[in-house]
Write a structure and sequence with these properties.
With about 350 residues, the chain is of the alpha+beta class. Helices cover about 30% and strands about 25% of the residues. β8 and β9 form a beta hairpin.
């Protein structure tokens, strides 16, 4: 989820190695928004592709400077500092992300809520502050009244955002990368690229084909060794986003504590081990993987089935694999996921 935002968990790879399509395969990897950003493309003009890759990395850095809680002067930090006091002028990008977050909150009955920021002070799962501590119940309860996405006031005419109560905090970790991937897709398409893959943490978009076929993507085994997949899916011109309890977590007395926090209880959600969303929009898939995880298997799968152009795979807390109706004939289950705490 965001703030330690959602921990991402997706094995992005062509089951085995990525195969080349006609043209030359070029690739770039680096750190962006706190995760590895990897771009792969098959192109006739490698120097032109590398210039487009440069543009994508610059765009990620620009958006991180607006949306991060770790970058001084970001829109998000400015909004949080002025909570309960005054509206803050912010970029159109920040307002667009917050509008999308509100829609996701409505779809998930508030389980996806970017105002969970106050809980990030006591549940520390971000790479910058993880301390593997379990907060006491009083500290959790005192912060729950500050979590309410409906109290984010967005004024597009004035270009401002206002948090209505002092102490509220926005954290966009569960949706920011999805927005950045969506922007990156546009950059690569405008540069003339047709066959490419973008992966940022647990968010991935594939366009066109590899070796003349759709890209084959793997879904991580939530309890298996690193890199092990339990299912595979062929995809083209779509997005694939996974949230899981195995990326940012710690174990205490046999209990797994992870970063996907239920805003109603202030504690890690317990119904799922991983949720993978397949959709057209990276932005929607990013937020939905978090929201569905926190909703739990039954309500989460019901939401997936209601939304157009959205499919999903859920590994439940009891290690059951649930597949949405639109994927049943498309997904290949390679093995039962490993069962462990």
């Amino acid at each position: 989820m965001q703030a330690s935002a959602v921990a991402w968990a997706l094995a992005a790879a062509a089951c085995g190695a990525v195969q080349t399509a006609p043209g030359r395969l070029v690739e770039r990897a680096g750190l962006a928004m706190g995760s590895e950003l990897r771009i792969t493309a098959s192109v006739a003009d490698p120097p032109g592709a590398q210039r487009a890759f440069d543009d994508v990395f610059r765009e990620f850095d620009r958006l991180d400077a607006l949306l991060s809680v770790w970058r001084p002067g970001s829109d998000v930090l400015n909004i949080n500092t002025a909570a309960g006091d005054r509206p803050v002028a912010v970029s159109a990008d920040t307002r667009a992300v917050l509008h999308a977050a509100r829609q996701l909150s409505e779809w998930t009955n508030g389980k996806f809520d970017v105002t969970f920021g106050p809980l990030a002070d006591i549940w520390k799962f971000d790479t910058q502050n993880q301390d593997d501590s379990v907060p006491d119940e009083a500290a959790i309860r005192s912060r729950l009244p500050l979590i309410d996405y409906r109290r984010i006031e967005i004024n597009d005419e004035a270009g401002t955002v206002f948090l209505a109560r002092k102490g509220m905090r926005v954290h966009l970790g569960g949706i920011g990368k999805g927005y950045a991937v969506e922007r990156a897709v546009g950059i690569l398409r405008r540069a003339g690229l047709r066959d490419f893959m973008i992966q940022a943490g647990g968010d991935l978009y594939v366009a066109g084909h590899t070796d003349g076929r759709p890209w084959r993507l793997g879904i991580n085994d939530p309890r298996g060794p690193a890199g092990r997949t339990f299912a595979a899916l062929d995809l083209s011109d779509g997005t694939f986003s996974t949230s899981g309890d195995y990326s940012r977590f710690f174990m205490r007395d046999g209990v797994r504590y992870h970063h996907l926090i239920d805003p109603a209880t202030g504690r890690p959600a317990r119904g799922c081990r991983s949720v993978t969303i397949v959709a057209d929009s990276p932005l929607q898939a990013d937020g939905l993987s978090t929201g569905v995880f926190i909703l739990g298997p039954a309500d989460g799968m019901a939401l997936i089935e209601r939304l157009p152009n959205v499919e999903g795979v859920i590994v439940t807390a009891t290690n059951e694999v649930m597949v949405s109706s639109g994927l049943k004939d498309r997904i290949v289950v390679l093995a039962q996921p490993t069962d462990a705490p």
